[in-house]
Design a protein that fits this description.
about 475 residues; alpha/beta; 9-stranded mixed beta sheet; 13 helices; 15 strands; about 35% helix; globular; binds 6-O-phosphono-beta-D-glucopyranose
């Protein structure tokens, strides 16, 4: 993974007038600017259908940046890096104007033939923009040491078939190594720390095994509902929106074998192996192992059908059929409108083979490792200790590490890390096409089953709670 300053280059953002650009990309670039992580020579060209000139685009971004971060001293110099070219992205011939503008900026700022395209657009454009880049010769470098890269936001497909088709389309235009499919969870500092925690500490890895681990739970809960994204959510749902990508990637980081080195491909091979080792869940097993629910009031949200059966909460139990994990259940939970925002991983260790002390951690295991991804980023190790006084009453206590105790460190936003890596051509933290397809291969039967059953089996829960009361019904089929 890269820590070096990237080569000089130009970043072209499609969808530059949109929400992702001002909420995530420009603030991340600004952070990179203040942390001195941008290339020596670097410019950004925003493009979309909205008409702005460079000044108008800069002022628009200044407003958003100030809203997010308050007034900053050095924004003028940063905003000077931004340029804008309006084009109709549905019109192939307009890309010639974009091509000219790229050339003008490269000449004016002595930039090399290195261009990275960011598709911060609705997914329908993932089919259109790359094909017009190809049609106008924008997908290939002109010089032998030049390059072109493309970053694509999620959702990457809506099922296996569409993900395969999109992969095939993109790979016909850009080599796999130059395609960066974003999963912003992998940019989170605490997620990367799963790897360091596991692979750099002699005390955890030997225990990271079915012999010592009873179960693993991965949770990503949000307080917010679907807000203004009803239309998107109605065609997506929690399984596609969170489980297929974010939670399955977290699971892969927890479950993967140590790669021989931190080479991006070796690392991605291990992730791919996890997904291909998933025990398929099919037929009636789905009803027992995958539970879906909807928050009360979802059907009244804007752009949501009054009889929608879309799930806003999913709890599932899955197994990884390999030597390390055979028969260890992995539980994944995600939901909107929950009592609090929280993303955490719980590694539940087995209890001692013989219970010596009465009431030892309420009869269960005292040992749990908690990886807190957000908020209150940190790690806790829980174990049993004797309560002072007579007898041997055992209580579970916690040894805690909190990132905010490192006063000299501020956690960068996930997009800072991911942009920096893509600019450096480092795909370690970007899902590869084969892994992505393998995850869809696992998810597809569940989607199809739910489609057949329509609303049958859908549970409901009250906003501000911990999900449906029946969630404990996820069990192993005999
Ligand atoms: C996005 C989903 O990928 O992740 C959203 O589309 C969700 O629905 C978001 O709210 C959660 O991300 P985070 O970083 O806030 O946990």
């Amino acid at each position: 993974m890269s820590t070096k300053k990237p080569d000089d280059q130009l970043l072209v953002i499609f969808g530059a007038s949109g929400d992702l650009t001002f909420r995530k990309l420009i603030p991340a670039l600004y952070d990179m600017y203040t942390r001195d992580l941008l290339p020596e020579r670097f410019q950004v060209l925003g493009t979309s259908r909205t008409t702005y000139d460079d000044t108008g685009f800069r002022e628009e971004q200044r407003g958003h940046l100030e809203e997010l971060k308050g007034k900053q001293e050095n924004t003028d110099a940063f905003l000077g890096l931004l340029h804008y070219q309006a084009i109709d992205t549905y019109l192939s011939t307009d890309y010639l104007r974009l091509k000219e503008r790229i050339g003008e900026l490269q000449t004016a700022f002595s930039l090399p033939d290195k261009v990275i395209f960011y598709l911060a657009t609705p997914p329908v454009m993932y089919h259109i923009i790359p094909s017009f880049l190809l049609a106008n010769g924008l997908n290939q470098p002109i010089t032998s040491d030049g390059w072109r890269r493309i970053i694509v936001e999620k959702p990457f497909g809506t099922d296996l078939h569409s993900a395969e088709a999109l992969n095939a389309e993109l790979r016909a235009i850009f080599p796999e190594n130059d395609i960066f499919r974003i999963d912003h969870y992998l940019g989170k500092e605490t997620v990367q720390n799963i790897l360091v925690l596991r692979f750099s500490n002699g005390i955890f890895e030997p225990l990271w095994h079915r012999h010592y681990i009873d179960s693993i739970e991965i949770v990503a809960y949000e307080e917010l509902g679907v807000e203004l994204r009803g239309k998107y959510y109605e065609s997506t749902g929690a399984l596609r929106d969170m489980i297929q990508n974010h939670l399955m990637e977290l699971m892969a980081f927890v479950a993967m074998e140590p790669p021989p080195s931190f080479d991006p491909e070796l690392m991605r091979n291990e992730i791919h192996k996890v997904f291909t080792s998933l025990r398929p869940v099919t037929g009636t097993q789905i009803d027992r192992q995958v539970v879906r629910a909807q928050y009360e009031g979802y059907r009244q949200e804007a752009d949501v059908a009054p009889d929608s059966v879309m799930e806003t909460w999913v709890g599932m139990k899955l197994f990884i059929d390999n030597t390390r994990w055979s028969d260890v259940p992995f539980y994944l939970y995600t939901g909107k409108k929950m009592s609090k925002k929280l993303s955490e991983i719980y590694i539940n260790f087995k209890s001692t083979p013989h219970i010596l002390f009465d009431g030892q951690c309420a009869g269960g295991s005292c040992n749990q490792l908690v990886i807190r991804i957000q908020p209150d980023e940190g790690i806790s190790l829980r174990f049993g200790l004797k309560v002072p006084g007579a007898g041997f009453r055992v209580e579970r206590v916690s040894m805690d590490f909190r990132y905010d105790s490192l006063s000299h460190v501020s956690l960068p936003d996930a997009y800072v890390r991911l942009l920096l890596d893509a600019m450096n051509g480092d795909a370690t933290l970007y899902p590869r096409s084969d892994a992505l397809e393998a995850s869809w291969r696992f998810i597809d039967p569940i989607l199809n089953h739910w489609k057949e059953k329509a609303g049958e089996g859908l549970l409901f829960y009250l906003p501000g709670t911990d999900g449906p009361e029946e969630k404990d019904c996820i069990w192993v089929p005999e």
